[in-house]
Amino acid sequence: MGKRSRRKTFCFKRRTVQTVTVSTEPQIQNQAWEGFTPGPWMESIDVRDFVQRNYTPYDGDASFLEGATDKTLRLWDYLDKNYLAVERERRVYDVDTDTPADIDAFKPGYISEDDDVIVGLQTDTPLKRAMMPFGGWRMVKQAIGEAGKEVDPEVEKIFTRYRKTHNDAVFDIYTPRIRAARSSHIITGLPDAYGRGRIIGDYRRVALYGVDYLIEEKQASRDSVADAGFSEHWARFREEHSEQIKALKKLKKMAESYGFDISQPAKTAHEAVQWTYFGYLASIKSQDGAAMSIGRLSAFFDCYFERDLAAGIITEEDAQEIIDSLVLKLRIVRFLRTIDYDQIFSGDPYWATWSDAGFGNDGRHMVTKTSFRLLQTLVNLGPSPEPNITIFWDPKLPEGYKEFCAHISIETSSIQYESDRQIREQWGDDAAIACCVSPMEVGKQMQFFGARVNAAKALLYAINGGRDEVTGKQVVEGYEPIKGDGPLDFDEVWQKYEEMLDWVVGTYVEALNIIHYCHDRYAYESIEMALHDSDIIRTMGCGIAGLSIVADSLAAIKYAKVTPVRDETGLITDYITEGEFPFYGNDDDRADDIAATIVHTVMEKIKAIPMYRNAIPTQSVLTITSNVVYGKATGAFPSGHKAGTPFSPGANPENGADSHGMVASMLSVGKLDYKDALDGISLTNTITPSGLGRTPEERINNLVGVLDAGFIMEK
Description:
Elements: E1 6-12, E2 15-21, H1 27-32, H2 47-54, H3 70-90, E3 94-100, E4 128-131, H4 137-146, H5 153-162, H6 166-173, H7 176-184, E5 187-188, H8 204-209, H9 211-223, H10 232-257, H11 269-286, H12 298-310, H13 316-331, H14 339-344, E6 354-357, H15 369-380, E7 389-393, H16 399-412, E8 415-419, H17 420-427, E9 431-433, E10 439-441, E11 445-449, E12 452-454, H18 455-463, H19 490-522, H20 526-530, E13 537-545, H21 547-559, E14 561-566, E15 572-578, H22 589-607, E16 616-621, H23 627-632, H24 662-670, E17 680-681, H25 696-710
């Protein structure tokens, strides 16, 4: 197989430097890779090539699966009784207040004596949360107090007197209009005090290549441009690579503390899962991002499982136990959050999204036996929101797998579905979801996460000339309100809405550019980026909230009669709507076209603004659970939406407005142009099992039919 080499091209100040670097002796690698189909993945880092050449598509059903082992059940029971039960009572089990988090900051931690299948905890104790003050001391201090603990005065001194944090830097730069937008809640949830997340390290690289090779590769990339001449880009490239190398060395040290040498590639399926988890563990030990996806793992793991099963090294029971143990670890990841943060996200999520299934570019589906094993964890361990299991759905997936997905969805409500074809055509067949709906190619791109703007509140600002409909405060200067007491005119309202969006979007993107400039300087994700290519694509993940409310309100203004109601100061605080009008979400082009136009308009305004590090702007129609918080800060609408009440989630129709059934709502959402929302479009539907049929078989078949209908795309 020879030595591996890597050839890359870097450009600085229009000067091109070509390098041929990195070679390692193959002996140990050959042993680890024995039995795998060779290919370019042996010559340079290319996990996708390894997977495509070595995974085994599975067309069967779930009959081969095993239940939880006695060891798994004992471990889960011990964890629940001794840790999870305590956490449920306290909200927070414990906090380490002495040690700033880092990859190698804590001694090895275990759950119990049965915790020996997949090992590794964020701290030295299950559920004990680490503080991550590099993002911002204010939030850390608040969260520690809310957990009933006291801050360490020496640590506080360091991060208030000697070490500038990301949050400090952001607020040093913020403009008055950004501060005004934050306080009025027209922009909410900006990652200006915590980890930005939505960066998927290619954790598979740790298992396939070993850390030593990854270090050599990063050293070679850094040094390949040593003679390129100074520029800000050149300096940052070299400094970031140096930080990545340090992080990889810490990763190796952390694994050694658990008794594992991950310097070389994994030799077995068990090692492949453990090595991969160590890579992910390093990320969650050092970063508290709003979303910490684990990537796309099943087909990769399955290559090792199939090889070891064929060789008699493991049994199917062993394979399931390994996956169960990994998922158990993912369920107990915890970050130190404030109560305010928990309210924004309605709980304590961190979105360890695990993407699965879909098709490869060669036309083969990517369902494997490990795809089934992953779903089986929801049977063996019970339902759970973490990891956020996401299926890349296509009607052409194997029937046995589709039926098992439907069965698990009905029994656990713990699976989400994405359109494989749309994601694959835009992002390739090694894409994964970085949050809830945000796709990217693993190890080759990252996202600057940006929360979302309150597009619904922006409409009320447009009508009131920049005055806040809740507080009455003049937030935006220089805009004229709607005058008179007569019915609202659609063309006038739309013009003012577009003008207000210029201010809102401009303020929003300005804030995002500031946040990510500061994050790269003060809270850089060194280990996650160490598991990326040196040259990557960067996107800026923007988003909007309140789409259905704006669409319905504009439809009401256009097709019915809407009369504003003013308070004693002249502020419009309510509306009287007379007559019928179409609601978005009922497959009615009149309302659906308005919704699509809103998404397109916002995206065009975002694209017109220069992005930090030349990031490619994308947009999501997604609120996660912040729709509740947005609703509390927003007034009444022409559509009839009441002041202070929750928005509908994501791209969903307004609550109760979708009178034509679920398929009609899916068709309405399908009219939103994916090119205007490449960061993802979220539709959340709730179906009671009884609504799907009388028997389990009927329910499964009907749910499969609904999913197939929802993801059929025109050619």
